Structures are given as C-alpha cells and as structure tokens.
Amino acid sequence: MPAEEVPPELPEPALGINFARDGMNRRDWLSLVAVHSDSWLLSVAFYLGARLNRNERYFLALFEV
Fold first, then answer.
1. Measured in Å, how far apart are the chain's first and last C-alpha atoms?
2. What is the pLDDT of residues 7-34, one digit of tens each?
C-alpha cells in the first residue's frame, strides 16, 4: 500500500530495531524483529477490528468455524 493511502491513525511500526542490529548477534536481532512485527500486526488487527460496524461484525461472524 502506498504511503499516501495509509490512514494517519494506523499504528506505526517500531523504528528502533535497525539501531540495535549493529551490536547484536544475528539470531537475537531476528528474534527482536519477530517480536516487534507480531506486536505491530496485533495492534493493526485490533485497530481494524475496532472500526468495524455492526453489520461488518455480523458478516465476519458468519464465516467463523
């Protein structure tokens, strides 16, 4: 998605992971990236879920197994 189309209220990803890379072991750094990615994806999912209206929530509930 182009940066111009991203809503401004969408949670920002963590910016500090690149600064710590130089002094860290590669495996530890990748673990840190995974943690930050997971937390960002969860925050985006909750943000988008909170914006659903009643009809959209009902429609999504129909497809739950």
1. 30
2. 677 666 666 666 667 778 888 888 888 8
Closest CA to 10 of 50, 47, 51, 52: 47
Reduced to 3 states, what is the DSSP secondary structure of residue 52?
coil
CA distances to 30, 34, 54, 63 from 48, rounded to whole Å, are 27, 21, 13, 17
Cβ burial 27-48 (10 Å sphere, 16+ → b, else e): eebeebeeeeeeeeeeeeeeee
Q: Which residues contact 33 (CB under 8 A, 6 or more apart)?
A: 17
